[in-house]
Write a structure and sequence with these properties.
Four copies of one chain form a homotetramer.
Chain A (H helix, E strand, L loop, with lengths): L1 E4 L5 E4 L4 E3 L2 E3 L1 H6 L5 E3 L5 E5 L3 H7 L9 H10 L7 E5 L5 H10 L4 E6 L2 H14 L4 E5 L11 E6 L8 H7 E11 L2 H13 L3 E16 L2 E4 L2 E3 L4 E6 L2
Chain lengths: 242, 242, 242, 242
């Protein structure tokens, strides 16, 4: 798998295939033989840089069937739950697999990510996306997480569900001592219900927050925050088994 | 090393020592024998939960000689640079070692973090903090990073320096293709100079942003963002060698 | 009434009295005779500039018994309700009178502000504050606004009450066609209840928002948003009788 | 002049003319005879509410040749400069006249607004807009404000110009003691230059800030800040002649 970048900076994900664009075509074997940093030319003489995609490049270009959680929010989840190499993560639901890929990249070969998804079409896309990147430590379970989390001694249970409270009791049994539950929810009403249920099942260190990202435009005519921005994605709620 | 938590939720970091507080004392050997989840009693009968500290617990309680970068910003750096298990990171300066510890936790045993620090007192504290947590993949170099980065094929160069532009040329040589430079700077003037120098040395995909974190108070009397918040920490600037 | 400003920029409100500070004293008659822009000297030779206070100077320095609504929020209320000279405003509760003063300054001699306050101590302070500034178009009613608003043909009903919904029906009768109800509430739960009741009593154009103010530090060492900021004051809700 | 509102809440500004829409037409004389609160029917039987427009209704529907300053920013200017009935305001440039209308509404019959505009097409539109609303206290000067502000004893000089520093010296002479200069600027570089020049010409109490407005969506499925928001309009800078 390669990414090739055209002269305008646009990136294309290439998997064992010929490349066609308005800048011309590149043969499959030329792409396969290329190494990172090489420059490939189309039959029209236009240049493309070759890159091995990292997890962000890949997620940007892979197939999606639903909206994905933004890097800002995944980053804050990572930092607030001390996620690291070798850890065990359970997530629900999988969606297109972006978060699972992201977590899989961090926990690495000695860690593992299990992701529950109730919709078969999402589970299939996610499995294809995960296999496409070659992560072997991420498993998609086409299964309703409300029927219970089988994994034990887990470091992080991450919930991106309309009713995360349905899984709180099960998460409490699944998490190791010191482990974290983290939930992503668009609506404040979800946060309120979740807090009640988290307290009921003995979670500690409850915290809810929003991460607001402001991009800064640095241009010749001047510097300023961008005119349009994402105003809200979701509230992040954290709790811990102590 | 253990963390013990009192009945109010307050955490204490314990390293081979007796514990004393206004709730009474606990003997060194009792702490050493304890397992995660155990409950220890002081001579006054007060209970303390035992926990193995994760990287966040440890950073909160370790010795500091200067202010540290907040988790929100470290999280966004992690997410925007696709940081993961097995990667190689260079950082400057080390400060108290919090960022180095955080990166070390993510890159794991198969990765490595090298952190440059020009001040001997900071380098010593950081080394003590890193050794204290037992991370063997993090190395502190008591060395001026402006004299050059020795490491090659690096995934991320992270700069928390007053003049990060002094290191841009050296970072360009140190980074592998596709690798990231990330910089943390409080002042907008720093961002402007950095952008100019990044462009001069051929970096791509320049992006600057701010991460604003709003904590939400969920209480019986009602729900609201907290009255006081951190208004600004630093701008984050990202660039890539392509 | 005068404001005098010391060499550090600190302001003092003076009402028919001698002035004493660590910079020395100034005689009552010297202050009374002074005109805006004059410089007065203390017996120690320190200089004080004389100023006629505007409504903001006065509110900053007047006596307060409770926290007041910040200018950012009052400004947004003014702008969103098209408040102007000659209009009629009803407010509840009065508190220390800051908002009443602010509205009184805008509606002017041809307009009027009636402010309901249930606590006698607040009503007294507010009356004193309003008389002190010399606004004759602002009236404080020591009366429970839940017993009904007597005023009719009102342009704006502004509610800073724990349960603003108790007054919605009464406000609907009080407002002229096209008039606005505006409410200031710290908690999101208050906003939700208020919306339900506003709809029930036929209000249109419902809108809720937050105004977040970021101060920018412009210093020699660099420019940046301030480190600490007010994270939240209150939600502003607007509705209209159409 | 009337506003008529259709069954969906959409507003139309009507000036001595027949009304046509996909809901049918209403005769000119029916609109002219109508009073606020009346319901007019089209020949198709669809109902329209009649309203006398306030300044916000009018600005929303009047002709514009350029982008206008948002109410959030005008509101903060009003609040931070203690603007009120009877005051004298100078502004530059006029643009479509929205700010001039807004200030004119606040200062009322006993106050006055003078607005400088260097572009003839903008000055003409603004004059038409101001006459259309019937404000007699607002005057547009088709004149380069850099040639000097003629007005004296002014309470507020408001600058929405690319280079507001060109007018600082002139503003200092125009303002009364205690008066304010306020400037609206999209770029941070403009703020820095303005601060330098304001200090040079003896202004006090310099302050720069940003007003960020977050709209809250209150819907049946839940409550949340809106997904998309305005990320930045302009920095507001305030200074005072003391």
């Amino acid at each position: 798998m390669r990414i090739i970048i055209d002269e305008r900076g646009k990136k294309y994900l290439i998997k064992n295939e010929e490349f066609h664009s308005d800048f011309g075509f590149i043969k499959k074997e030329d792409i396969e033989k290329s190494k990172e940093g090489d420059v490939l030319k189309t039959h029209m003489g236009r240049e493309f840089k070759v890159l091995k995609p990292n997890i962000n490049d890949y997620i940007d270009l892979m197939e999606r069937k639903c909206s994905i959680i933004l890097p800002k929010d995944i980053g804050v989840v990572t930092a607030y739950t001390a996620l690291g190499s070798g850890q065990r993560v359970v997530e629900a639901g999988t969606g297109s697999g972006a978060t699972a890929l992201y977590f899989g990249n961090i926990v690495g070969k000695n860690g593992e990510v299990t992701s529950y998804e109730i919709r078969e079409d999402f589970a299939q896309i996610a499995e294809k996306n995960i296999a496409g990147f070659g992560l072997e430590n991420v498993q998609v379970k086409f299964q309703d997480v409300k029927d219970g989390i089988q994994e034990r001694d887990v470091d992080l249970v991450f919930l991106d569900l309309p009713k995360p409270w349905d899984v709180v009791e099960s998460a409490a049994q699944s998490l190791k001592i010191g482990g974290y539950l983290a939930a992503y929810n668009p609506y404040i009403e979800q946060v309120l219900t979740l807090h009640k249920v988290l307290k009921k099942f003995g979670f500690s260190d409850l915290k809810s927050l929003e991460c607001i990202l402001r991009e800064i435009e640095v241009k010749n005519k001047g510097t300023r925050p961008k005119t349009r921005m994402v105003g809200h994605t979701g509230y992040l709620t954290f709790a811990r088994i102590l």
